[in-house]
Amino acid sequence: MPVTLKFRNGTLTAFIKGDIDHHTVPEIREMIDDCFVSTENAQTLVLDFSDVTFMDSSGVGLVMGRYRLASGKGKKLRVDNLSRRDYMIMKMSGIEKLAEINQRKEAVK
Amino acid sequence: MKKINELKMVFDSRSVNESFSRVAVSAFSSQLDMTVEELGDIKTVVSEAVTNCIVHAYKNTIGKIYITCSVFEEGIVRITVRDRGCGIEDVEKAREPLYTSVGGDRSGLGFSVMESFSDKLRVRSKVGVGTTVTIEKRICGKTK
After folding, report:
1. Domain-embedded: residue B143
2. Residue A98, domain CATH
């Protein structure tokens, strides 16, 4: 399963796993949206990118779409643990002006 | 520039081939001494170019996508992604950041991402004939 969802203290967190591209986005989107829409107590939707292995601009579309869904319901969206590259791609869209996005703390080797 | 190796491949414009194509091209290019970052750059640009063929050029039909990847002695990788799809009416406009002709959850960043992760990007397109995207990237490698 590409997404694991956890609800706690008003926050629904979607842990996304694997590659995010045009091929994988529909399943990821459906899993997140189904759960978010049915979890009415969730005030914040968090997309956690810790286990994302690759992302192209399809990932930006996924985040912007979830932002529209959340803000339409008066709720917040946050994106956590983006890799350096994915953070850079995300910022090209200007999404950081609308939602909080956070970079991953890279392991020091 | 002196070409030292070349890969040619043809595959169906099925979205399942997006991951195959970016992995294949990055694996072939990796004969140049490359950093993980540079490998990632190649994966990203190929993924964007191939997705454009699937989403835009062939829309809801299945056509062939042609990729040539050439490696040059000077440490340059040249990737050509070609389709025989619908073509782009206004290339300038298509290259504008955040412009998308299809809407929905497409970000309109495909060409911008390709530009920022490569050194040269050329787009040739003819309506009804197809599109060719050529990307060049200079590889600095692990030993700078």
Report:
1. no
2. 3.30.750.24
Instruction: Write out the two tokens for B65.
Output: 């996508």
Confirm whether the ipTM is greater than 0.95: no
Provide the number of structural domains found in chain B. 1
Which residues form the domain of A98?
Answer: 3-103
In the annotation, is B106 catalytic?
yes
Instruction: Give, for A63, the enclosing helix (H) or strand (E).
Output: helix A57-72
**Closest CB to A92 among B19, B54, B113:** B113
Closest CA to B91 of B70, B69, B68, B114: B114
Tell me: the pLDDT tens digits for A29-67? Answer: 999 999 999 999 999 999 999 999 999 999 999 999 999
Segment B16-44, tens digit of pLDDT? 999 999 999 999 999 999 999 999 999 99
Q: Is B107 in Cβ contact with A60 (below 8 Å)? A: yes
Does residue B144 belong to any structural domain of this protein? Answer: no
Query: How many folded domains does chain A comprise?
Result: 1
